[in-house]
What does this fold into?
Amino acid sequence: MTEAQAILLATLETKDAEADFLKQQLAVYGVNAKILDVSLWSDGQVLSGPEKLAAMDKASQRALDYVGKLDPQQLKVMIAIGGGTGAEISLRVMTQMPAMLPKVLLTTLSFDPRPIIADTSIIVIPTLADVCGLNPIICAVLKNAAAATAGLYKLTSSTIDSNPVKTVALTALGATEAAASRLMSALDMQGQKVTVFHSNGYGGAAFSRFALEGEFSAIIDLTPHEITRLHLAGVHASMPDRFSAGHAKPRIVLPGAINFLGLGKLSTLSKEYLSRPHYAHSGFFTHVKLETEEMEVVAEALIESLNTATGPRALIVPLGGFSHQDCVGGAIEDPDLRRTFLNRAEKLLNSDVQLIVQDQHISARETTKTIIETLVSFGFPLKGQTP
It folds into this structure.
């Protein structure tokens, strides 16, 4: 079997007509999709909870067994259509595929898929109406999805590059954007490619996956904010390897944005959080300043991860501020909180981890210069110049 394949996942017990229509629409664009049935095969019976979960496991495994027999270079795109159960089964299959394989999920969105798809590239298309009959709305959605999927099939590959260049991993948020931008410019001057991950509770999952797969030449965890979500509060995907993946690579860590909790809309916050210094980062997100005891918790967790890594590593502490609102006159300015972090670092950091303390803000030019100089001290191929 040498023909490039498009895989269409569907529960044919309940979505036969819709799957066939989607297959026909893909064929309009020259894409011959192979339908894989991920039905529960219940024969119309109502399954108990345990029976249904077992049937879902079997359905996803059947699809994985088929795909596993393909030459990885054959599989060009995967598309799935489903309601709640069908979408969940399809996601179990899709998340086992290569991260960069184009994947499209048409679903009624009966659950929040973000925690599941955080470490892989899946395009989610809401069906708007229930996937139950070929009505005008569903047909329009399926036609659009077929056109998009055909484009992916023809123009993209399941791998990033046949000979990928390893990049420097960098974590960032809006609260550290100025620091990240300055650092990206500095690394670009050195001819280094940078991959930036949004440290918002979901981006860290993708960072972990690529780090485990050896995609990075070095790691600059400028914004380890997700440690506050993992240990205190804030939504996040599962990311057990967020602070250990790539442990043998050169690693520089700064306490960027660990001075606040990333919470939801201002109107949803409890009185306890509203009593603290805070600000609306946007209409959807509010940043609430950490208390001393909370800073001690995240500092200890971050330092422990540095201590257990094996590559050359450093912790840079910019006492001028850890985020854009942690500055003179900022909404969550707190020099004492920064000192709390430094105190834990001075007490707990292993001697083989460099501790570099400076008076400037995390976004200052001097901080960027320190990061570059530290990379050079690790033997990383840089000239040590900064813009």
DSSP finds twelve helices and 14 strands in the chain. The chain has two domains: 5-155, 167-377.
